[in-house]
């Protein structure tokens, strides 16, 4: 998408192949080469990184990008807000899959119980930048056998090509439109809970300090995951990894 532009960004860096859009964004910030809001996007990533430093499969056809946003004072629920924007963008463009598209806490997008999109959020405090790494399996044709049970692409589900430029534009149109309200403290909790993958299910949460099992009750206005650990005892969790659900 070398000719892609969006008013949210002062500069867009487009590549055919790159090791990691996140690493490139950090380098552009550290060297002072990039200023203001900017986007790094690539057709292929050779070393894409997911949560917990896991390798993220990033072949041709998908959307691999990192948005670098300058000077934002945002809460820990920023990545949840981003997940809502992406979920809305996909369902607005492809309403036929709305009932199958869910958000897994905190921000992964799932389609038919398989991962479609992942989001990584990080903050460079000294440089006043917030980074949002987004990987979305849009036009990925072939999912590796070892990932076939856990990953999916829009193209495989819809049986037609996806216009990545239209989808990315819609994502950032939503982002820009809803951002002022989010900065004022408004998170669309109702929408999130309506499309939650986990709400009502028995889940196991690993917080690194301990593991907790209970019934997911959605999120609160701060983006914390609410778990009913025992009848009448609901505990909010602000960090952790959901390792199982049923």
Structural notes for this entry:
There is one protein chain. With 246 residues, the chain is of the alpha+beta class. Helix 2 crosses helix 4. The strands form two sheets. A seven-stranded mixed beta sheet has the order 1-2-3-7-6-5-4, with helices on both faces. Strands 11-10-9-8-12 form a five-stranded antiparallel beta sheet. It folds into two domains: 183 residues, BirA Bifunctional Protein, domain 2 (2-Layer Sandwich), CATH 3.30.930.10; 48 residues, SH3 type barrels (Roll). Helix content is 23%, strand content 33%.
Please provide a brief summary of the model.
The protein has 246 residues and is an alpha+beta fold. It has helices at residues 21-30, 78-93, 154-158, 164-183, 189-194, and strands at 11-18, 38-45, 63-70, 101-104, 108-111, 114-124, 129-136, 202-206, 211-219, 225-230, 233-237, 241-245. The strands form 2 sheets. A 7-stranded mixed beta sheet has the order 1-2-3-7-6-5-4, sandwiched between helices. Strands 11-10-9-8-12 form a 5-stranded antiparallel beta sheet.
């Amino acid at each position: 998408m070398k000719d892609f532009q969006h008013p949210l960004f002062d500069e867009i860096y487009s590549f055919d192949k790159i090791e990691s859009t996140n690493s490139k964004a950090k380098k552009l910030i550290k060297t002072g080469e990039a200023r203001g809001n900017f986007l790094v996007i690539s057709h292929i990533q050779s070393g894409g990184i997911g949560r917990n430093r896991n390798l993220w499969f990033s072949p041709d056809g998908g959307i691999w990008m990192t948005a670098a946003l300058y000077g934002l004072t945002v809460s820990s629920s920023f990545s949840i807000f981003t997940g809502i924007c992406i979920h809305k963008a996909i369902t607005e463009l492809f309403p036929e899959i709305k009932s199958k598209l869910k958000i897994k806490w905190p921000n992964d997008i799932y389609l038919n119980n398989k991962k479609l999109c992942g989001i990584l959020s990080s903050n460079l405090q000294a440089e006043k930048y917030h980074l949002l790494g987004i990987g979305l399996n849009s036009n990925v044709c072939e999912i590796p056998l070892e990932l076939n049970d856990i990953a999916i692409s829009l193209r495989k589900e819809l049986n037609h090509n996806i216009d990545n430029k239209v989808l990315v534009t819609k994502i950032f149109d939503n982002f820009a439109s809803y951002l002022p309200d989010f900065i004022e403290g408004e998170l669309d909790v109702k929408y999130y809970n309506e499309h939650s993958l986990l709400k009502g299910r028995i889940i196991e949460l690993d917080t690194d300090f301990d593991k907790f099992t209970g019934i997911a009750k959605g999120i609160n206005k701060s983006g914390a995951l609410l778990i009913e650990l025992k009848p009448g005892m609901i505990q909010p969790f602000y960090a952790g990894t959901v390792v199982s659900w049923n």
